[in-house]
Amino acid sequence: xxxxxxxxxxxxxxxxxxxxxxxxxxxxxxxxxxxxxxxxxxxxxxxxxxxxxxxxxxxxxxxxxxxxxxxxxxxxxxxxxxxxxxxxxxxxxxxxxxxxxxxxxxxxxxxxxxxxxxxxxxxxxxxxxxxxxxxxxxxxxxxxxxxxxxxxxxxxxxxxxxxxxxxxxxxxxxxxxxxxxxxxxxxxxxxxxxxxxxxxxxxxxxxxxxxxxxxxxxxxxxxxxx
Length: 226
Known about the structure:
alpha/beta; 226 residues; single chain; elongated
């Protein structure tokens, strides 16, 4: 086996089964499904390196859901497969978080090559925490410890911290944070995100000499080393 683990979603069983058999033939461990809910419910413990996801399934455009999944699976690669293949549609997919985009019908050799290329970029999903001096943050849960002692955070604060920490030194769009927080916590205002980030800064104050959560006016936030 190559050591890669791939999840393929397509609402057409013939396509998902074909992809699974093709990847298995190339020594790639693969999970296939025709139900997008199974993709959304998958735990990060499954250690998926690459997702190959059908954009249009059951008459629904899943691009927004794929964008949210990218926040959850920030150390995994995402290949969008779709019958929508105009330049504007491909660019939209890439701008919204896809790491690669492939138009249907899928050519077997090209499909395997693109999966393996993403595997080289996202082959290590074992990272479980991000550190800033004495501060360590779980990239799976968002829980935080300073000098080994747990810091009390609300569920919403943990979720935001997980997103920021998993994209360490990179800008995270305000809209992406808000969409992911809304998904589970039904928050309704970007002001709520701002206030929660303010509380996170205060609660992690003991380690603030080592990191900063910086607002990018009109864009989002970045968590970076000082």
